[in-house]
Amino acid sequence: MDVVVVGGGPAGRALARACAARGLGTTVVDPNPERPWRATYAAWVDELPDDAPVAVSTTRARAVTTAEHVIPRGYAVLDNEGLRRLPDEVRVVAGRVVDRTATSVTLAGGRVVRGRVVDATGAMGGRAAQTAVGVVVPAAEATPFVGPDEALIMDWRRPPAATTSDPTFLYAIPVSADEVLLEETSLARRPGLPLAELRLRLHARLAAWDIAVPVGEERVRIPLDGRARDGAFGAAAGWVHPATGYSVAVALRRAPVVADALAHGREVKRSAAERAVRVLRLRGLAALLALPPDEIPEFFNSFFELSATLQRAYLGEPDDLRGTVEAMLRLFGSASWVMRGRLAFPVQSAKSARTLG
């Protein structure tokens, strides 16, 4: 049976490429297939498949919490043109889906496209979001924040200007041989922190180092707790990690597996382990949202003191139940008694924080 992938983002196109490679007649339905991609997609190098289109990579990363952590893992920015590229045999249809069944979609205007339908339209619903505002500057101007051959994953030191107590961090990664993306990021907030506040903080960081604000900016909003749908792929399947906002690396890794299932007529659905891991990670998101702002750096300091194996387990596969449980238990055990209480009872902690605030 032919396959119809609804959604032409990185996940949908990865699946379309994998389906075409298995000889499946493949159609991608995208409401605006020629629209440029403005987002920067990045991932740990060791989480990417060998054929992932990498634009630039580093050999190490760094995080600043209540202490500085050097992370001996490569970090990569993906090549958007490589992510967009489709083989000639994949048909791209421009249109908006107004109705769908398991074996067909109807577009606005009445056109019907038939085939095994896979939803790759991205995360939907939810209240918590990661938001960010970023600018690209010459690498020579970014040296106060990030060194050569490294990525700054997060720097929780408070920016010179802020009008709210919400915690944000600076994310600084090379996007080419001579340019660096500097992004003020709110990791998780319900609802997402407004972009105006993020812009204010980013510009204050730049001004403190006499860095001129360049023309143009990148704006980010990633739903973190959107509804996971069975029979979907990518963020639509609940693969957005609630602690990082990442999902593209998982989609690239899993595209061949899902394409194999489609080629053999098997049902595409989440496993019991995947459902359990999502519940645990959403529990972790609730705990993170409940922490007082000044305790967020301490929380991440505890995380980066975990072994590299446990860090990878928590941040990696969406069905690694054993690794996720072990990482969460080890993080809980290493936390202070006060933080343990907040992590164990996030709803009550959130109420207390609001009362104190």
Would you write up a description of this structure?
The chain is globular. With 357 residues, it is of the alpha+beta class. It is built from ten helices and 17 strands. It is 32% helix and 25% strand. The longest helix has 19 residues, at 272-290. The N and C termini lie far apart (58 Å). Residues 348-357 have low confidence and may be disordered. α1 links the parallel β1 (3-6) and β2. A seven-stranded mixed sheet has the order 6-5-14-15-16-13-17.
The strand count comes to: 17
> What spatial order of strands do you see in the largest sheet?
6-5-14-15-16-13-17
Shape: globular
**Separation of the first and last Cα atoms:** 58 Å
Largest sheet: 7 strands, mixed
> Spans with pLDDT under 50 lasting ≥5 residues?
348-357
Give the topology string: H per helix, E per strand: EHEEEEEEHEEEEEEEEEHEHHHHHHH
Can you give the helix content as a percent range?
Answer: 25-40%
What topology does this entry show?
Layout: E1 3-6, H1 10-21, E2 26-30, E3 42-44, E4 54-58, E5 60-64, E6 68-71, E7 75-78, H2 80-84, E8 91-94, E9 97-100, E10 104-107, E11 112-114, E12 116-119, E13 129-138, E14 150-155, E15 169-176, E16 179-189, H3 195-208, E17 218-223, H4 248-263, H5 272-290, H6 296-304, H7 308-315, H8 321-334, H9 337-344, H10 346-356
Parallel strand pairs: 1-2, 1-12, 2-8, 5-14
Antiparallel strand pairs: 3-7, 4-7, 5-6, 9-10, 10-11, 13-16, 13-17, 14-15, 15-16
Helix pairs in contact: 1-4, 5-8, 5-10, 7-8, 9-10
Keywords:
357 residues; alpha+beta; seven-stranded mixed beta sheet; four-stranded parallel beta sheet; 17 strands; 32% helix; disordered C terminus
